[in-house]
Design brief:
The complex is a heterodimer of chains A (85) and B (577). Chain A has three helices and no strands. Chain A is mostly helical and 85 residues long. Chain A has one domain. The chains are: A mainly alpha (85), B mainly alpha (577). Chain A: It comes from Virgibacillus alimentarius.
Chain lengths: 85, 577
């Protein structure tokens, strides 16, 4: 019985927090998008003094690159060095 | 007749509608495919496209569509007696709203989770999309004006509700920050916030200096207030200005900061309010005292009833939610029936209890007829009667009437205020989109678009003069709100019909409610515009005439577009899904 009530409360909380979770995820994704823009800025022609160091992050962010350029309104990869699509 | 019996009959009809009619539509018409890969899986991104448990999605869908509108409409429409209002809510929910909400959800799922606006462009053409944007623009403008009037009216009639409603704002900001910055859970803080609001309501109901009564501050109803206006007119003006400043700020802040935590608290109020109303009714066992029909009505129920109750019978706004968010989170296509159709049933249940609260409130049918003596009186007082009637149902749970009245008015104000800041935000986006469409880029700037939205809404709510003076005629806009909402529903039903026709399916189940809704809307608007509001009408009003005429032209335009699209003259490619 207690378990069922607990589950019901969890379900209720999930219902109510769904739009909030979505908005928090969207805000975090927007922050990530700006971060990715900074990292790829040198390749896009915007000088970035920290370019050498951001290269270290390359393996961690490469998987996100395809979704990022699509979100930024670019149908094909804008960087000749990365051919994701 | 017992109110409980009406509720049981109503709920039984909803259950039968869901059990049999929606199953028939799902299997035979929409041909739901359990193996269809929904957009939530195909485009899963963790933000917009997220496969979600069907109960969670239904709860979210229901709390997004339920608001003050399914309360206000039925509270006015019982003027023609409870039978017409009840029948329209029951049959409308089963045969129109359910099909519409379910249909828009499936249509969107079969078209990559796109919204109805985008689908209008795809299925009918660019003209339909622009028309769609204008209709939504009119709808949100009406929502802003009508709900600003609702909030203001309740603040003036129930001054004890002001403080608890304003206390909600800092509490919501605190919750929003706690969740966003510190990743805290929202359930407990939001329940605490609600408790603080209700305790404040209890204290404010008993302690008169905590009741923010602007009319009394200016010396009572007969006194003169600011700018030489009467005290009530001045109070309307001041509340509208405060409200508009608030919505300006609320709709330009990030949604997680204020809007969503407030929604979260209000969702508790929705659940609690519904539970208390139905439980109160069971314990009180009230009798229906209102007459079944009103033969002495000064205006015919046909066709006005069908635009007076929009939400609760059929509402175009639901299609925006179905295709805007729910379709992107549907885990399996078979669950569309539960989320869409049952979501409409949820709203029907809210409209049903709103009707019961009003028709059981009076001690006799004579008293009912004396209060609802004309359609203007019904429009003006319906909401107040609902508050009193709901408070009477609460008394079945031994809640004192003065506290219950304050709590019910807080619930209605909260619903109306949430609709208000969501629709101002929506209006800002639409103005921006129209700005891009017509090459006026400055319109897409948030503060420019929000200023236009807020100023036009404030002007609209202040212009119609009611019996209480300047600004109190907001209720005159209610039929226009209903019309705009029904038109939107008509377009969505049209899109579903076109889609079904092109797939070679039987689209009568969609076409019949569409023709019904369109016919009633056109007929009612024509009647109102020509015989009521025009210079030859009984109740000449330039503002309402102009707005009504614009909506009427749009409606005719949609009907013509519908015929062209359905007869196949416009032939756009579709996704067969």
């Amino acid at each position: 019985m207690l378990d069922k009530i607990k589950k019901l409360i969890e379900l209720y909380e999930e219902i109510l927090s769904m739009p909030h979770r979505q908005e928090v995820a969207r805000e975090l994704r927007d922050e990530d998008d700006i971060f990715l823009l900074l990292i790829y800025s040198e390749m896009l022609g915007i000088p970035n003094p920290a370019y050498y160091y951001t290269l270290e992050l390359y393996p961690y962010i490469i998987e996100k690159f395809h979704d990022w350029h699509l979100r930024m309104g670019m149908e094909k990869s804008p960087i000749s060095g990365i051919r994701c699509c | 007749m017992s109110g409980i019996l009406l509720a049981v009959i109503g709920i039984l009809i909803f259950i039968l509608g869901y059990r049999y009619y929606s199953k028939f539509i799902a299997e035979k018409i929409f041909q739901i495919d359990p193996n269809y890969v929904t957009p939530a899986h195909r485009y899963k991104d963790g933000v917009d496209f997220v496969p979600t448990n069907k109960f969670v999605l239904w709860g979210h869908h229901f709390s997004s569509v339920a608001g003050a509108a399914p309360i206000v409409g039925p509270a006015i429409a019982v003027y023609w007696g409870w039978v017409p209002a009840l029948l329209w809510v029951l049959l409308g929910t089963v045969f129109a709203a359910g099909v519409h909400d379910f249909g828009t959800l499936v249509l969107s799922v079969r078209h990559k989770g796109q919204s109805v606006g985008t689908l209008a462009n795809k299925l009918v053409g660019q003209r339909a999309k622009i028309l769609f944007l204008f209709i939504i623009l009119i709808l949100v403008l009406m929502v802003n004006a009508v709900f600003a009037w609702v909030v203001t009216n309740l603040f003036i009639s129930y001054p004890a509700s002001v403080l608890p409603v304003f206390i909600q704002i800092p509490l919501a900001i605190w919750i929003g920050n706690a969740v966003y910055k510190r990743n805290k859970k929202m359930l407990l803080p939001s329940i605490l916030a609600l408790a603080v609001m209700y305790v404040t309501a209890m204290i404010a109901s008993k302690v008169s200096f905590l009741q923010i009564d602007l009319v009394q501050y200016m010396g009572g109803e007969g006194a003169t207030g600011i700018f030489g206006l009467g005290a009530v007119s001045s109070a309307f003006f001041i509340w509208i200005i405060i409200l508009m400043i608030y919505v300006y700020i609320a709709s330009t802040l990030p949604v997680w900061k204020l809007l969503q935590p407030r929604d979260f608290i209000n969702s508790h109020q929705l659940v609690l309010g519904l539970a208390l109303l139905y439980l109160g009714m069971v314990f009180l066992n009230p009798s229906v005292t209102a007459p079944a029909t009103n033969p002495d009505a000064d205006i015919s129920w046909f066709p006005l009833l069908f635009i007076t109750i929009a939400c609760g019978a059929i509402s175009g706004f639901h299609g925006l939610v179905s295709s805007g968010t729910s379709s992107k989170q549907l885990n399996n296509e078979t669950e569309a029936r539960f989320v869409g159709y049952f979501g409409a049933v949820g709203e029907g249940v809210l409209a049903l209890i709103a009707i019961i609260a009003v028709i059981t409130f009076f001690s006799s049918s004579e008293e009912f007829l004396a209060t609802y003596s004309s359609f203007t009186d019904a429009n003006q007082m319906g909401l107040g009667i609902f508050v009193e009637g709901a408070a009477q149902l609460f008394s079945g749970l031994a809640i004192p009437t003065d506290i219950a009245t304050t709590i019910v008015s807080i619930i209605v104000v909260s619903f109306a205020a949430t609709s208000l800041d969501t629709s101002v935000r929506l209006m800002r986006y639409i103005i921006g989109e129209l700005g891009i469409e017509y090459h006026v880029p400055s319109l897409s700037k948030p503060h420019v678009a929000t200023s236009i939205a807020v100023i036009s809404s404030a002007a609209l709510v202040l212009l119609p003069e009611g019996p209480k003076g300047f600004g109190s005629g907001g209720y005159l806009l209610w039929p226009l709100f209903g019309t705009a909402n029904q038109l939107l529903a008509g377009i969505s039903l049209l899109l579903i019909a076109i889609w079904l026709k092109r797939l070679g399916r039987n689209y009568a189940v969609v076409l019949i409610p569409m023709i019904f809704v369109m016919f009633m809307t056109l007929y009612a608007m024509f009647q109102q515009v020509v015989f009521e509001w025009s210079w030859i009408g009984d109740d000449s009003n330039t503002l309402l005439f102009v707005l009504g005429a614009i909506i009427f032209v749009f409606a005719v335009w949609i009907v013509l577009t519908a015929f062209s699209a359905l007869s196949g003259k416009i032939d756009n490619p579709i996704d067969k899904g």
